[in-house]
Structure formats: structure tokens, C-alpha cells
Amino acid sequence: MPNRHGDAPKLDFDIDVVMARVREAVVPYAPAALDQFSKVMASAQGKVLLHCTIAWRASHMWGAYLIRERKMPVATALTHVRGINLLEDKPFGNQQPIEGFLGRTLPELPRPKPQP
Questions:
Q1: CB 89 within 8 A of CB 62
Q2: Range picked from 8-12, 20-24, 44-48 for highest mean pLDDT
């Protein structure tokens, strides 16, 4: 399939692609989305590439996964995902996406004021 730079490169990777679309207006930031991701992770036969088109949803999903599935302490998981792109100072409203994925509030996160 051509891309914007011309022909797509001819690469032969042994990779399974799983689309897990998460957009608040379509698929809410909720534990069900984390359940779906966790099933993919549990069935993976190798490395997993987690990708997001806007660069922060994947960070929130990964952090929620670390906390819930890997039982990582919240502070440690937040340190990991802050290094990726947590955007915890973004005014998401009264709940951060990571909290939606977990289905609970994380007191360790700041509560930025929503911008008008």
C-alpha cells in the first residue's frame, strides 16, 4: 500500500496487529478497555508494541496495566509513564484517563483546573 512518501517498504515481520481503539467519545476510558488490552498482553507470544495516534492515551493505558495487572505500586507506575507522556497537567476534567481505565481515583495525580 503506498504511503505519503511513495511505495511502502517491503518488510517481512512476523507480527500480529490488534486494533484496540480507545477514544472517549466512542470507547470510554473504562475498565472494559483495560480488560481488552490485558487479554492481548496475556496472549502475546513475544514483544508488544503499544501505539497511540495522539501520544498520550497509550501512556495512560500502559500505566493502568502496570498498576492493575502487574501490581506495580502507583507511584512507581506513574514514574514510568511520566517518562513516556502522561500529560497529567492536562485538564481532562475531573478524572484522568488512567483513572477511567482503572475505575478508581488516584490521589497521587494532580487535579488541574479545567480551562474555559
A1: no
A2: 44-48
Find, among 37, 38, 36, 40, the residue nearest to 15 by Cα.
Answer: 40
> What percentage of the chain exceeds 70 in pLDDT?
72
**Grid coordinates in use for 5?**
512518501
Residue 23 backbone phi and psi in degrees, to 5:
-140, 125
Which 8-state DSSP code applies to residue 97?
H
What percent of the chain stands above pLDDT 90?
A: 35
Grid cell listed for 107: 490521589
DSSP H helical ranges for the chain: 31-43, 57-68, 74-82, 97-102
Pairwise CA distance, residues 70 & 1, whole Å? 38
